[in-house]
Design a protein that fits this description.
It is a single chain. With about 260 residues, the chain is of the alpha/beta class. The protein has helices spanning about 15-30, 65-80, 95-100, 135-145, 145-155, 155-175, 185-195; strands spanning about 5, 35-40, 85, 105-110, 110-115, 120-125, 200-205, 210-215, 220-225, 235-240, 245-250. The chain has a single domain (about 5-250), classed as 4-Layer Sandwich (Purple Acid Phosphatase, chain A, domain 2), CATH 3.60.21.10. The strands form two sheets. The chain has a six-stranded mixed β-sheet. The protein has a five-stranded mixed β-sheet with strand order 5-6-7-9-8, with helices on one face. A hairpin with a 2-residue loop joins strand 5 (about 110-115) and strand 6 (about 120-125). Helix 1 (about 15-30) runs parallel beside helix 2 (about 65-80). The protein is globular. The relative contact order is 0.19.
Length: about 260
């Protein structure tokens, strides 16, 4: 039976090896056989450039070894017949075509409009919906600027490692000082986006608040499905089967697959 799987917000990091083990086991046993896998952003906690793949023997903090291990695992899944799509998140916005090629994947635009059982479904990372977080929205605009990205990628690798650590620290400090509602999606922006794309189903991650929300778009019933963030022992997925109905699911991870 055909199925499509969607995940987001794994935040893979060399400092959290159990998470990586659990994800790779999930790829090998759960995702194998799926028609497609969509990773809707923040696969990595930080991504400092595709040239990481050149530095496995001179590895800045284990990031290169992690990148290669994940790319190889995704490539095995792709070679077995599963189509893989990668969307940028707010942590790994520098993911490029070279990593995607190594992983046997294609980069996916944000937002992306797809059809399942002839029904349109909109996929997003979700950060662009959080319009009340004005400071983050300013950073997002800068981080998506090709000139800014080119400038960052021209920095020595060690400097990029330090920059990524600094950005994560600043993000953590800013988050701790923000009201919870500011970091969630803006309902008006959700409705506007769904109306613009003509959909009654939106699937996204980013907020780490997994749930299925019922709403209305121009007096038509609609739903917003939010993927959860993965932890060392648990993960979240959305599965879409032949009937086209998305199912949000929480599951345990096997963290020591070897």
């Amino acid at each position: 039976m055909s199925s499509t799987l969607m995940i987001a917000d794994l935040h893979l990091d060399p400092a959290a090896p159990a998470m990586t083990d659990g994800f790779l086991d999930w790829l090998e046993h759960r995702a194998r056989g799926a028609d497609a896998l969509y990773i809707l952003g923040d696969l990595f906690e930080a991504w400092i450039g595709d040239d990481l793949l050149d530095h496995v023997d001179n590895d800045p903090g284990g990031h290169a070894a992690l990148a290669m291990r994940v790319a190889q695992a995704l490539r095995r899944l792709a070679d077995a017949g599963t189509a893989i799509y990668l969307m940028h998140g707010n942590r790994d916005f520098l993911l490029g075509h070279r990593f995607a090629s190594a992983a046997g994947a294609k980069l996916l635009s944000d937002p992306a409009l797809l059809r399942f059982a002839d029904q349109p479904v909109l996929l997003m990372h979700g950060d662009s919906l959080c319009t009340r977080d004005e400071a983050y929205m300013r950073f997002r605009e800068q981080a998506r600027n090709p000139a800014w990205q080119e400038q960052v990628l021209a920095m020595p690798l060690a400097d990029r490692v330090q920059l990524a650590a600094s950005l994560r620290q600043q993000s953590g400090e800013a988050t701790s000082n923000k009201a919870e509602e500011i970091m969630d999606v803006t309902q008006e922006e959700v409705v506007r986006t769904m109306r613009e794309h003509g959909v009654a189903t939106l699937i996204h991650g980013h907020t780490h608040r997994p749930a299925t929300h019922d709403l209305e778009v121009d007096d038509t019933p609609a739903r917003r499905i939010v993927l959860g963030d993965w932890q060392p022992d648990t993960g979240w997925e959305v599965e879409i089967g032949p009937d086209g109905d998305p199912v949000l699911r929480h599951f345990p991870l096997k963290t020591n697959p070897l």
